[in-house]
């Protein structure tokens, strides 16, 4: 590992390490959000994205009940639990992922594939209120490299998240979902425009500029 004149860390390729892994390591070491996340003890750099989205739309308030879909390793849940104060109020942060999530203060973790047939009733059983104030989805499928397949998987995840919204979001509630540029199908967007008073897209600064990810925010859910 060396540093160049701009203090950029360069990682030498090592035997047994793929070039893609070397590049990933180099990117991690040079990413200010990764460094800041480490400094603040955040589970992931993704935490900054939800903080930026909240800064713009003022979504989270103490006492709210939040569903976080695709929550591992837990960066979003961690910062949201802090804002809604779920340790000491009647609020809740229910964090759901196929992967296990290590214990986090104020967060109830649930290991679940949202494509499971009875996913909605399983989630409902864990909720402390009949419906959530906010539903978040940062879900992303593992990519196959096959463009059409990856696209279908992304769309399927967002559609499932919206099915959960239909069943578990309170009237007046908010939905935030990860989408990919060129990937928010008109059909999905129309569904959201029908169900929410306001639908906006946002690309947080902390979302890597070379990533096609952005977020769609649905405000004031109409049941
Ligand atoms: C980008 S990560 C989420 C990062 C998280 N927001 C954070 O702040 O740490 C996307 C997550 O979606 C999860 N995921 C993908 N497909 C899923 C599914 N079918 N059901 C539940 N979680 C899923 C993945 O396991 C992965 O942990």
How would you summarize the topology of this molecule?
Blueprint: E1 2-3, E2 9-10, H1 19-30, H2 32-40, H3 47-57, E3 65-69, H4 75-84, E4 92-97, E5 107-111, H5 119-126, E6 132-137, H6 147-168, E7 169-180, H7 186-195, E8 196-202, E9 213-221
Parallel strand pairs: 3-4, 3-6, 4-5, 6-7
Antiparallel strand pairs: 1-2, 7-9, 8-9
The structure holds S-adenosylmethionine.
Any overview of this molecule?
The structure is a single chain. By secondary structure, the chain is an alpha/beta fold. It folds into 2 domains: 2-30, no CATH class; 43-221, Vaccinia Virus protein VP39 (Rossmann fold), CATH 3.40.50.150. The chain is built from 7 helices and 9 strands. The strands form 2 sheets. It has a 7-stranded mixed β-sheet with strand order 5-4-3-6-7-9-8, with helices on both faces. The protein has a two-stranded antiparallel sheet with strand order 1-2. Helix 3 (47-57) crosses helix 4. The longest helix has 22 residues, at 147-168. The protein is globular. The structure holds S-adenosylmethionine. Residues 43-44, 46-47, 70-76, 96-99, 113-115, 138-141, 157 line the site of S-adenosylmethionine (SAM).
Average pLDDT taken over every residue: 90
The topology string of helices and strands comes to EEHHHEHEEHEHEHEE
Strand-residue fraction? 15-25%
Small-molecule binders: S-adenosylmethionine
Count of domain modules: 2
Q: What is the helical fraction, as a range of percent?
A: 25-40%
Could you state the CATH homologous superfamily of the largest domain?
Answer: Vaccinia Virus protein VP39
List low-pLDDT spans. none
CATH architecture of the largest domain, please?
3-Layer(aba) Sandwich
Overall body shape: globular
Q: What is the CATH topology of the largest domain?
A: Rossmann fold
Structural class: alpha/beta
- Largest sheet: number of strands, sense, barrel closure: 7 strands, mixed
How is the largest sheet built, in terms of strand order? 5-4-3-6-7-9-8
Distance between the first and last residues' Cα: 55 Å
Q: Name the CATH class of the largest domain.
A: Alpha Beta
What's the total count of β strands?
9
Give the number of helices. 7
Rg from C-alpha positions?
A: 18 Å
């Amino acid at each position: 590992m060396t540093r160049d004149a701009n203090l950029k860390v360069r990682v030498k390729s090592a035997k047994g390490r793929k070039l893609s892994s070397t590049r990933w390591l180099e990117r991690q070491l040079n990413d200010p959000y990764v460094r800041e996340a480490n400094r603040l003890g955040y589970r992931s750099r993704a935490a900054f994205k939800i903080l930026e989205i909240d800064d713009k739309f003022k979504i989270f308030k103490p006492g709210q009940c939040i569903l976080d879909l695709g929550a591992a390793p837990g960066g979003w849940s961690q910062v949201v639990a802090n804002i809604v104060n779920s340790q000491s109020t009647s609020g809740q942060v229910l964090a759901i992922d196929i992967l296990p999530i290590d214990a986090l203060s104020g967060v109830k973790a649930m290991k679940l594939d949202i494509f499971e047939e009875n996913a909605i009733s399983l989630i409902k059983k864990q909720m402390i209120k009949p419906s959530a104030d906010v539903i978040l989805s940062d879900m992303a499928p593992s990519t196959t490299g096959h463009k059409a397949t990856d696209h279908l998987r992304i769309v399927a995840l967002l559609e499932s998240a919206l099915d959960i919204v239909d069943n578990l979001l309170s009237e007046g509630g908010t939905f935030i979902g990860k989408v990919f540029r060129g990937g928010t199908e008109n059909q999905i967007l129309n569904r959201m425009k029908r169900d929410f008073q306001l639908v906006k897209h946002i690309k947080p600064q902390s979302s890597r500029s070379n990533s096609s990810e952005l977020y769609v925010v649905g405000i004031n859910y109409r049941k």
